Structure formats: structure tokens, C-alpha cells
Amino acid sequence: MRDLTDRDLERLFELDDGPGPACPIDEPRAQTILAAALGRAGFSPPGGGRGGGGAGAGAAARAGVRAKLAVVSGGAVVLAIAAVAWIATRSPSAPSRASASASVAPNSPALPSTTMPDDPRSPSRAPASASAAPNSAAPPSTMPPVTAPPATAPPTAQPATAPPTAQPSPPRPPRRTPPARTVDHRRPPRAQPVVATTLDDLLAQANAARAAHRWRAADALYGRVVAGGPPATLAVQTALVASASIHLEHLADPAGAARRFADALAAEPQGALAEEARWGLAEAARAQADRVRELRALDDFLAHHPGSVLAAQARARRAALGAPP
Amino acid sequence: MTTALAAPARDPRITAAVGGDRAAAESLCRELLPRVRNLVRYLLRGDARVDDVAQEALIAVLRGLATFRGDGRFESWVDRIVARTAFAAIRRIRAQTQPGEHAAVDDAPGADDGDGRDRYALRRELAEALDRLPQDQRESLVLHFAVGMTVPEIADAVAAPIETVRSRLRLGKAALRGALGASHA
């Protein structure tokens, strides 16, 4: 047999929708993979979620995640209730809040860690399905639990889909000052409705706001994603690049855009969105009429992504700026 | 053979999916799934984790959709995200795998009859030949021949010097030719 040429190898490796090299799978298996991926990416289940017809994707996904977590983390919740009860019995002066909602109990910073094996709000610790990978490269990072003030509640959130245990009651209970000298720092915070908002939910809400051309709302939501997770996670990277694009294209803020692109790049210089971030830096510099910085950004872009579909455009722009080839 | 996603114009399903349209997202993912699984299999040793990693890759694609600007082919953009997701999975798997542990290769039946089966058999053979290569050579070969990356792009993606990547490609190609040539001799 003759040697395989490069062209033969290209043909062999060609990615198409033909068979192989992955083993064929049947339709139910494909459906399982797709459903799990869509669910973990924040898309509401078919039908709009649990009785929440017309619910937004993020809210429905959040409801789904909560429902899932309610099952998966049942053991942790039982432990949490037991821990709260234990604390109540240890501190007779504390108001009887031992029966406080289990969604609040895990927030107590003073709960002994041994009683809380897992944060039940964390979807990253709850397998989405039997086939879900345990450690995603882009893990569904969680936001720290936030008290949801009505002013910051994302407009797409539909209260109808939120489980009652985690939904803040509209008339917020008056904050009671604990009696002096009886403060037990192990007591969980009271009157603090907790919404277990995940970064995925926020990202989905931000994307929806962006699709609806509500630029400032989208930017604010992207900002919450950025504030809520480690910079190297894909959710945060996505939020940074998307927010930067909004600043560049819709908010007339190229400096803000450049900052965000640079942040995304600094956190993950080889990341999935590095190409977008590098190109964005050049565009932001161009919008600021900063020739030197634009050239530097274009050079950096071409050095890292010479085969990019934007490479020709980058070279043409360099030439237009008078840079040597 | 090419898929319908190859059109240069931005697929309207992308915009719809960014806006939270599940049906659009599902339709995109369904179309991408075979491609994603195949690319993952090229990159991963054995069959056991292909579907898990393909699922992770689809999640990464869906989350990143808002950042796709439509400047190039959607599939190319997807391939790169899939490759990066697979790399992360490989690092994780490597950290969890005991030395000497072998990844399982399914003895799966062919996909269909006739020409399809021939192609399937060839690609399985190729994947199994890749399974026998060092991972760095394998990655360079797949990024070059399947994803279509240039040598400098691969160097950037795998954080290796350009000359190293060239060398990996050269050695990898020689090994593949040996493996595939021997099986057809």
C-alpha cells in the first residue's frame, strides 16, 4: 500500500456527520445527552418547566436545578436541619428558629463544617444526570447565595417558577434585633430569604436580555456573573467577552470594553474565547483611535491566531495603519 | 459531505438560542452532536468517556453562543471549543488514571452498510491507531487534520513551541502511516 499523503489524512480525519470514529448511539442515548446539555446550559425543559407556562429560560432552569438539588441533596438538608436543631438546643436564649427553612440553614457560617458535607445549592456538586460528566471543563459555577432585592431581580425571572422555599416573600419580614447579650453567632441569619442563583441562570438571563437589546440590563447581569465566579470559568469568560462587546458596540464605552476583553484574556490566555478577546482588544483600540495600541493588539492577534477567519482582516487593517507587512 | 451549518451566513437558530429558545438550541445541538462526538473520539483515548465529554463540550458551546460573532464558520468555532473542552477533560482523566490503566475500546458494530461501513471501519482504525500514539502527537494531528489549525495555532493552543509542534506532527504522521499501512499490507 502506498504511503498516506497529507491529503489522505485530511480526508480520513474529516469531521462530517458521517459515521465514526465515535461508536454509533441510538436515539434515546442521543436524546439523553442533548437534554442534559441543554438543561445544564440553562435552557428550560420542554413545556416551560413545572407548571410555569411562559417562564423565562433562566427562571425555569433555576427551578429545575432546585428541584434536582432538592432530591440530590436531601441528605445534606436533613443534616442541616439537625445542625440547626442542635444549635437551638445549645443556645436556649436564641429565638426558636430551629425550624427555619432549610434553604436558609446552610448559609450559617458558623455551622460546623462536618455537618454540611455539601452545599445543597451547588449544582456543580449535583450530577445533572447519570451521564453527566463529574467535572466539566466549564463547570456550572455557583454564585454565592444572594438575597434577592426586588430592585436587582432580573426582569426575566418569573416568580411562578421559583419554589416557595427559596422565594422571597413580597412583604419582607421586619428585621428583628436580637436581644443584647443573647446573640449566638452560630445562629443562622434570619429574615434573609435566600435565592440560590447560579451563574448559569444569570448567564442565561443576561443572554436573553442581550437578545432583547436591553443592553444595560444585560451588562448588569453579565457583571453579576463576573462577580460571582472564578475568572477562569467559561461562564465568567463568556460574560466578560459578551459584556465587553456590549460596551463596545452599544454603550459607546470602548475603554470599558478594552478592560473587559483584557480581563478575559488575562484569566485564560489560551481559553476558548481568547480569539474573540484579542480581536475585541484591537477593535476597542480602534474605537478609541489609539493607533499604537490597535497595532499592538492586531500583532498579538495575528501571532496567536494566524489561521483565524479574521486574520486577513487583521492584516488589511495593519496595512491600512501603515504597519510594515 | 458537509452539514447544513456550513453556510457562511449566521444561522438564525444561533440568535434564537442565545435568546433562550430551547427548540433552536436543541436543533443546533442535534445537528452538531455527531461532529462533536467524532472530534472528541479523535482526541480521547478509548470510547468510554466520549459521550460525557461530548456533553460537556455541547454545554460549553451553548454557554459561549452569545460570543459567536458570525465572522467565520460556526462549525470551526464549535470545533475549537470542543477541542479545548476535550483537552481539559484529558488533563482531568490523566490525573485520575492509574499508570498502566488502559482505556476501553468498544467493539461496536458498523454504523451502516456499504460505503458508510467502510468509512466507519477506516475511521475506527484511525482512532485506534491514534490511541497508540503519545497524547501530544495525537493532539497535534487532530488539531491539524481534523480541526484545520495551522502549526502556530496549534502551538498556541497546546502551549508548545512551534518547532515542537512540527516535530510532533512529523512523528505522528510517520506513526500513523506505519500503523495504517501495516494493517492494509
Summarize this structure briefly.
With 325 residues, chain A is mainly α. Chain A is 46% helix and 0% strand. In chain B, helix 1 crosses helix 2 and helix 2 packs across helix 4.
Structure explained in plain terms:
The complex is a heterodimer of chains A (325) and B (185). Chain A contains 11 helices and no strands. With 325 residues, chain A is an all-alpha fold. Chain A has helices at residues 6-13, 27-40, 57-72, 74-90, 199-211, 215-228, 234-249, 254-267, 274-287, 291-304, 311-320. In chain A, helix 6 (215-228) packs antiparallel against helix 7. Chain A is flat, with a radius of gyration of 25 Å. The longest helix of chain A has 17 residues, at 74-90. In chain A, 44% of the residues are buried. Helices cover 46% and strands 0% of the residues of chain A. With 185 residues, chain B is an all-alpha fold. Chain B is built from 8 helices and no strands. Chain B has helices at residues 12-18, 22-43, 50-64, 74-96, 114-131, 135-146, 151-158, 162-184. In chain B, helix 5 (114-131) packs across helix 8 (162-184) and helix 7 crosses helix 8 (162-184). Chain B is globular. The model of chain B has no long low-confidence stretch (mean pLDDT 83). At the A-B interface, helix 1, helix 2, helix 5 and helix 7 of A face helix 2, helix 3, helix 4, helix 5 and helix 6 of B.
Q: Helical element count of chain A?
A: 11
Question: How large, in whole angstroms, is the Cα Rg of chain B?
Answer: 17 Å
Largest sheet of chain B: none
Helical stretch tally of chain B = 8
Q: How would you describe the shape of chain A?
A: flat
In helices, the fraction of residues of chain A equals 40-55%
Biggest β-sheet strands, sense, barrel of chain A: none
Which structural class should the secondary elements of chain B be placed in? mainly alpha
Mean pLDDT of chain B: 83
Strand content of chain A: under 5%
As residue ranges, the low-confidence spans of chain A are 48-196
Range of helix content of chain B: 55-70%
Radius of gyration of chain A: 25 Å
Number of strands of chain A: 0
Low-confidence stretches of chain B are none
Q: Average pLDDT value of chain A?
A: 63
